[in-house]
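FAQ: What does the model actually see?

It sees only this:
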Amino acid sequence: MQIFLDAMFRAKRKAHGYGEQRNFSLPHISEIDEEIAKERSAAKSERNNNRAERKNERKNEKNARDDKRNEHKSEKGGTQGRAKRRAQRMSAEKIVKM
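And it is asked to produce this:
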């Protein structure tokens, strides 16, 4: 509706510029629909670009967290170190129970 009123105002202003008083022409409905479609597609593509940027940011943050976690695991010895510690703890518990 805003585009329709805007087009009507521009047509009226243009007519007044030529010295005409009340006669002005409106654009065809198809022209108005084309303008609306262009605006919507531009807004949609901008939204999609923003979504893609946010998705990439989240992916990069996740990769950074994973890299940091993997570095920490490698310093500790990773899962093999955890298995060794668990085996030592289990054997120590068996010795204490005896």
